Amino acid sequence: AQKVTQAQTEISVVEKEDVTLDCVYETRDTTYYLFWYKQPPSGELVFLIRRNSFDEQNEISGRYSWNFQKSTSSFNFTITASQVVESAVYFCALSEARGGSNYKLTFGKGTLLTVNP
Amino acid sequence: EPEVTQTPSHQVTQMGQEVILRCVPISNHLYFYWYRQILGQKVEFLVSFYNNEISEKSEIFDDQFSVERPDGSNFTLKIRSTKLEDSAMYFCASRKGQGNTEAFFGQGTRLTVV
């Protein structure tokens, strides 16, 4: 069975600090996808990134970076120079990717990030 | 930019009543999903729908739940006889298919059963 663990329930930082959100996953599949979604206070789920299990290259998008390490089954998310508007719940998610898959998502419990002015 | 839209944004219903949550997926998407998020908890998969039939459902999706794509654009989730524990945020999502794996979510419908 697939499982995603986000051990950090809440993180509080001061604006402009860097922050890393941890994600550890479990799956028996050799091919899978990892995702990060953001849920701001307004409640919607906003897609941030997808990573294929075959691609272990780290990704950087502006102040956001993702560190995917298969050896430790982790897919951590770092925000550099955090901003108050980035306060939200961040979810890590996993989906299977074998043929005929529905790509249904298994979510972690989320990490509430509060960025204080 | 195309988006998934859900109506209503908030629904209050009495226990035992039927409720229908509506979603309009992105127009060229082929796969549709409902997820549920009980307040303060994680987002959970309910059901996936493809080619006018359910392709997978979770243990949560019991006989009280049903989905339908009545007219080629709407995708609905019906709860036949609501219970207090059905109170949650319900998210609709759609995916293009054909190797595209990102699911795009609607803004959610908050269902409150009283």
Describe what this molecule looks like in 3D.
The complex is a heterodimer of chains A (117) and B (114). Chain A is mostly beta strands and 117 residues long. Chain A has strands spanning 3-5, 10-14, 19-21, 24-26, 32-39, 46-52, 59-61, 64-69, 74-79, 88-96, 106-107, 111-116. In chain A, strands 2, 5, 6, 10, 11 and 12 form a six-stranded mixed β-sheet that branches. A four-stranded antiparallel β-sheet of chain A has the order 3-9-8-7, with no helix packed on it. In chain A, strands 1-4 form a two-stranded antiparallel ribbon. In chain A, strand 5 (32-39) and strand 6 (46-52) form a beta hairpin. Chain B contains no helices and eleven strands. In chain B, the strands form two sheets. In chain B, strands 2, 4, 5, 6, 9, 10 and 11 form a seven-stranded mixed β-sheet that branches. A four-stranded antiparallel β-sheet of chain B has the order 1-3-8-7, with no helix packed on it. In chain B, strand 4 and strand 5 (43-50) form a beta hairpin. Chain B starts with a strand and ends with a strand. The chains are: A mainly beta (117), B mainly beta (114). Chain A binds chain B through residues 33, 35, 37, 42-47, 50, 91, 93, 95, 97, 102-110, and chain B through 31, 33, 35, 41-45, 48, 50, 55-56, 89, 91, 93, 95, 101-108, 110.
